[in-house]
Amino acid sequence: MRGKNKFKMRHLLLLLFVAYILSTLVMQQFKMISLAKEEKQLKARIEEAMNQKTQLQNEINLLQTDEYIEKVARDELGLVKPGEYIYKGIKTLK
């Protein structure tokens, strides 16, 4: 009788150990899936940030050109070159 009781106890302990190992493996698998999704999202954000950086660098380069500076000076500040005149029209009310 004692032999059967030890046998059952060993089976129970083995079953609990196997259940623990399986549950740990399943939880690790879920964690790996979650981390893979997070990695994918972070890579997408990095790519978006790199594209934005490139666009901003292009805009900075444009802002430093003489043509752009002249355009802003003429359009927004109303500056003219020597010898040029500004003609402004008058709006009429109908």
Automatic annotation (TrEMBL):
Show the coiled coil region(s): 32-66
Keyword Transmembrane helix tagged? yes
Report keywords, A-Z. Cell cycle, Cell division, Cell membrane, Coiled coil, Membrane, Transmembrane, Transmembrane helix
- GO terms for biological process, alphabetical: FtsZ-dependent cytokinesis
Q: Does the keyword Cytoplasm apply?
A: no
Organism's domain of life?
A: Bacteria
Q: Name one GO cellular component term.
A: cell septum
Name the PANTHER family on file: CELL DIVISION PROTEIN FTSB (PTHR37485:SF1)
Please state what the protein is called: Cell division protein FtsL
Q: Which organism is it from?
A: Tepidanaerobacter syntrophicus
